[in-house]
Amino acid sequence: MGTQGVSTLASKAPEARNQHRLHARLANGAPIEAVSISRRRNPSIRHLVRPWGTMPSPPAFDEGFRERLRTLLIWRRDVRRFRPDPLPPGAVERLIELAALAPSVGLSQPWRFVVVDDAVCRGAVRRNFAAANAAALAAQAPERVAQYAQLKLAGLDEAPCHLAVFADRATAQGHGLGRHTMPEMIDYSTVAAVHTLWLAARAEGIGMGWLSILDPREITAILDVPAEWKLIGYFCLGYPIEEDDVPLLETAGWEEQRAAPSFLIHR
Amino acid sequence: MGTQGVSTLASKAPEARNQHRLHARLANGAPIEAVSISRRRNPSIRHLVRPWGTMPSPPAFDEGFRERLRTLLIWRRDVRRFRPDPLPPGAVERLIELAALAPSVGLSQPWRFVVVDDAVCRGAVRRNFAAANAAALAAQAPERVAQYAQLKLAGLDEAPCHLAVFADRATAQGHGLGRHTMPEMIDYSTVAAVHTLWLAARAEGIGMGWLSILDPREITAILDVPAEWKLIGYFCLGYPIEEDDVPLLETAGWEEQRAAPSFLIHR
Q1: A124: Cβ–Cβ under 8 A, 6 or more apart, which residues?
Q2: Residue B11 touches chain A, beta carbons under 8 Å
Q3: What is the pLDDT, as a whole number, of residue B122?
Q4: By the CB < 8 Å criterion, does A28 face chain B?
Q5: B56 pLDDT band (50/70/90 cuts)?
Q6: Which chain A residues are within 8 Å of B176, Cβ to Cβ?
Q7: DSSP A233
Q8: Which of A188, A200, A198, A186 lies closest to A236 in space, CA to CA?
Q9: What confidence tier does A260 reach under pLDDT thresholds 50, 70, 90?
Q10: Number of A–B residue contacts, CB under 8 Å
Q11: How far is B70 from chain A (nearest CA, A)?
Q12: pLDDT tens digits, B57-114
């Protein structure tokens, strides 16, 4: 990538950073992801140092936005009943672009997205779910077996879009920062990307369902991805048949939401 | 809790659910969390079945909201430099209420939030970080040691609010649904709550930083919480000294963001 459109400025001492911050957006509007850091790592090239005032001001979010965000959180659902309509062209790519803005340990961006269209793969995933679900049913407490059997736990047959998400624990990106004592931070970062994608999808009217009733290792084999990729979840996406602000498992009488104060203690 | 204000309706056959949906908000505006599911589990009591049209309509999110949501995602940062100003009274409780709307496996809501104010606890956490960070520094590749040592990786000294978040793998809530083959879904659900809290905080102008350079078992002991609670992260919250749309680790030259298409494959 060339440096056309990138404003230049003489090198600044570190203490001048409050006035002259490094900024990673090209003047021509190219996204930050497209900027090679090598130019900034090399102190002889300071194309990306911009004078204060030429970079975008921090946004202020008002009460109206916060109220809409709360509404989004309340109406985000784990969707299991989908209309067969396909997603618009480019929708998945757009959602993944937003997901890649999620926080990640050491800026490792360990998320790996696999869009599954192949009918043979989908069939194998469906059989894997059926077997895992039968085992889970058999493990239920006797008084819950009948209720469990009635739950609809996946939209694999109807959802137009199947998405498997993995965490790449072997990634060199991030240089190991922040995962010396907690290597599972790679998985957690990927979950943050999944949740970002979920919210962005709902904001477009697209529903998503998270399927965890699967054998993770077998899914890795079915999709022929590297063995170091850990399955975080298998997701169905599509337009929901119904919208609700109450979790399906609550309306089905499986479980109830508890009040937030019950999750909070002080030390 | 009484049933005043709850609309009642005769029992409906399951196929009538599209017209008459179960709804978990009391007419007097009490939050869904306050509704006891027992009345819905018991088929003789159908207080919560409401005629179609009396429940809130699904929200439609427009392009303006999606653009603001994208801005929020872009400007959410892992904050490590805080102003000393305390958070407003009730802010943490308000953020945790939103976090509790996050998706959770089997509606298990396994998140456990510990607000840490005690000076002795804070001191022990600070020492734990210092030891873990020294070990992480020693494990760096030789060419990265100097750069690692210059990074500011925690805001423990300045942040007015310390929050430890744990996942309760022993919770009975959710009745084990969805975690037979993937028990780690309890951890993932907690991460979704953390990410929800992070976005909600940023929408209020509050910054958050995620600390994972800690010994998780020792933090559990320091805070005297049940041994089955798994530490997901230790968080600093407060008003940030600076705002940016570029990750700190990118401006510091540690790592660069990659473009979203590099994370996507097809099967």
Answers
A1: A222
A2: no
A3: 97
A4: no
A5: confident
A6: 136, 139-140
A7: E
A8: A198
A9: very high
A10: 360
A11: 7
A12: 899 999 999 999 999 999 999 999 999 999 999 999 999 999 999 999 999 999 999 9
pLDDT above 90 for A70: yes
Length of chain B: 267
3-state class (DSSP) for residue A116: strand
pLDDT for res A12:
33
CA separation, residue B56 to residues A220, B10, B27, B50 (Å): 41, 20, 11, 11
SS3 label, residue A237: strand
Residue B129 to residues B133, B157, B212, Cα–Cα distance (Å): 6, 11, 9
Mean pLDDT of the region A71-93? 96
Q: Give pTM, 2 decimals.
A: 0.83
Provide the 3-class DSSP secondary structure of residue A162.
strand
Structure token pair of residue A183:
């290597």
| Chain segment A18-42, per-residue pLDDT in tens | 333 333 333 333 333 333 333 344 3
Nearest to B69 among A194, A200, A246 (CB): A200
Angle, CA of A154, B101 and B15, to the nearest 5°: 45
Residue A191 with chain B: CB contacts under 8 Å: 188, 191-192, 195
A237 pLDDT above the threshold of 60 = yes
Instruction: Please give the Cα distance from A125 to A122 (Å, whole number).
Output: 5
User: Has residue B42 got a pLDDT over 50?
Assistant: no
**What is the overall mean pLDDT for chain B?**
84
pLDDT recorded at residue B19: 33
d(CA B47, nearest CA chain A) in Å? 13
Q: Which tops the pLDDT comparison, B45 or B227?
A: B227
Alpha-carbon distance A150 to A145, whole Å?
9
Q: Does A39 lie at the interface with B, CB-CB under 8 angstroms?
A: no
Is B196's Cβ below 8 Å from some Cβ in A?
A: yes
Amino acid identity of B84? Answer: P
In chain A, the residue whose alpha carbon lies closest to the alpha carbon of B186 is A212
